[in-house]
Amino acid sequence: MTLTPKLSSKPKVAVYKFSSCDGCQLALLNLEDELLDLAKAADIAYFLEATRTVKSGPYDLGLVEGSVTTPHEAERIKQVRAECKFLIALGTCATAGGIQALRNFTNADEYAKTVYPHPEYLEYLDKATPISEHVEVDLSIWGCPVNKYTVVEVIAALLQNRRPNFPPSPVCLECKRNGTICVLVAQGIPCLGPVVHGGCGALCPANGRGCYGCFGPSSAGNFNSIVSVLQPLERFPGEAALLLRNFSGYAPAFRKAADDSLKASARKEPK
Amino acid sequence: MKTIEVPALARVEGEGGLYIGLKDGQAVEIRLDIYEPPRFFEGFLVNRFLQEVPDITARICGICPVAYQMSSVYALESALGVKVSPQVRALRRLMYCGEYIESHALHIYLLQAPDLLGQPSALDLAAIAPQVVKDALRLKKIGNEILKSIGGRSVHPVNACVGGWYRWPDIAPLKALLPDLEWGLEAAIDCVKWAVTLPFPDLKIDYEFVALHHPEEYGILEGEVWSSKGRKLSVADFEKGYLEEHVRHSNALHGHTMDGGNYLVGPLARLNLNHAQLLPLAQKALKDNKIKLPLTNPYKSLIARAVELVQAYEEAIMLVKTYQPDGPAHIELKLKAGEGAGATEAPRGLLYHRYQIDAQGRVQFARIVPPTAQNLPRIEEDLLALVPKIIAMPQEEATLTAEHLVRSYDPCISCATHFLKLRVEETGE
Q1: Which A residues, 182 through 241, put their C-beta within 8 Å of a C-beta on chain B?
Q2: What's the first-to-final CA gap in chain A, in angstroms?
Q3: What is the pLDDT of residues B176-210, one digit of tens each?
Q4: How far apart are CA B67 and CA B100, in angstroms?
């Protein structure tokens, strides 16, 4: 994370959508108690989901939702970078490729044939990639979807010219704070909590299920260890890899862990 | 009018473009270009374990994730031949009420109303009518609070599973919402009163309405697929009546009936087909405001949404008051190979899923028919009907009226897959 630049007193903000579900932009519109204040503190200059008004750039702050999946998007992200002083990857798709990056583990043409009767009508890239593979990103906010209060904290910090309070600690720590009994240790439910970036509030364990990793890898995570813990819990070979290769599956730490897990599963299979 | 070009259609979910080709003052071609990137979800689902399906399909849409979760779980439960308990089902209805509230309040006030009140956005609207926008945000927030209380968060909630819920939500946070829900019910009733006074553009379309119908309740979760032309099909037979085709200008498939006609799904279809099943206060709102059914003006789907907002608040209050977790939160599933279909009513309309699973519970085949894909050909037809009315208008007004029509559908272009760009130009000599 770079230190934040000083933004103008009422920064011009742009919100962009790439390949995505709109859920992270919605985090902004779901700031029901803060939205009107936010609109006073910042000049919402480009945000198509919210307004027809488009003010031209350059912008002080750009928030990008979604991953890059088409030739058009690969060009457009460069233009976005050029017109934004400070660029934020908003959510797991923008940060790691997200759910769309599942195509990266197979042949996208196969998917196109599965879903569309005329795949020749489509334009898409073989790989869905995070925006950081195309341009320099100043800050990444993980989450599928992002936690809206994290977005407020980041924007507030930028306005106040300070570092956002945005700890990299894993979901595990949030369970401890919540007083949630460990689902992995106590119930043997496969859970990625030890290696996943916190920020959601450890929702899944609080609901009696394992973390499925939508907030991406924690820099504090021990991935070798999680693979060895998950392996014995598999109900069918490859189950742990499925868990690792999901919403954040294209993040390098998850990619490697899923590969390691698949190898371990293969070793277990009867010869 | 020669050429009107707007970079992208605003205040819709996803990205798309509109092309209207004119010759001698007549529309010769109308196309809703969907250039939201193709998203391959049905492909991603293959080989996934069935319990992953509701979490993955939720990611099709950030505004209506509950709809995707619910159609998934009903389809997969049908494949396994299991039926959830009445308590589990009641909580599913409540969760769906939360989604209707947040999605409809968002659409009525933040996405469509600015068109009717001559503002570019709700934020601009807030400058001239702050109380309307504050109330709108509160109305919407309460829906999100229901979702949060049941599913942990409002976008991509985490509690729904095949067979029921991972755990029963705590009673206290839900009951604590009652004062807000009571306020919301009154505000929703006022919303209907306000909605009927709005200056809707004039347009009358002879639609074939299609929606789920349930004899005992306003159809959302289960029922038969009814059409205003008299066709009645079980959900399992949906594909015998309706199909999708792939057209060149769209990354979304287009829906048609078997006899080649267009049809409409969504709030107008539901209200027109199922108004007899509305709860008393929603019925009263129809009557008090002299709303004559069927509503056949697509712009007036805002009124249908407002009535459904009353319905959703009214039902949510009932369900919160009677919420009493009893028995297991979910069925212990016995895995077996099978096939099953499920349909529920997303805020934007009927959402159909079908899956084949193997003996280990892994998906072998998935088919998803989102509401916006079904409505796309209908939107194009509506635009064709609109052209004579807007052709004499100044460019900006014509553009806005056409954009407004598309927006009134509440299209979920990401769902249907996505960039809306409006371009009206003369073709030929």
Answers
A1: 200-201, 203-204, 206-209, 212, 214, 236, 239
A2: 47
A3: 999 999 999 999 999 999 999 999 999 999 999 99
A4: 10
Contacts of B271 (CB under 8 A, 6+ apart): B293, B295, B304, B307, B308
ipTM of the predicted structure?
A: 0.94
Check CB contact under 8 Å for B123 and A50.
yes
Say whether A20 sits in a helix, a strand or coil: coil
**Strands of chain A, DSSP E:** 12-17, 43-47, 59-65, 84-90, 139-141
Distance CA B368, CA B341 (A): 10
Query: Count H helices, E strands: chain A?
Result: 12, 5
* DSSP-assigned beta bridge partners for residue A141: A90
| B33 φ, ψ (degrees, to nearest 5) | -80, 125
Contact flag A50-B8 (C-beta cutoff 8 Å): no
- In tens, the pLDDT along A130-140 reads 999 999 999 99
Instruction: With CB atoms and an 8 Å threshold, state whether B37 touches A73.
Output: yes
Phi, psi of B190 (to 5 degrees): -65, -35
Name the pTM for this structure: 0.93
- Record the tokens describing residue B372, joined without a space: 């916006």
pLDDT tens per residue, range B221-256: 999 999 999 999 999 999 999 987 766 666 666 778
- Terminal-to-terminal C-alpha distance of chain B: 13
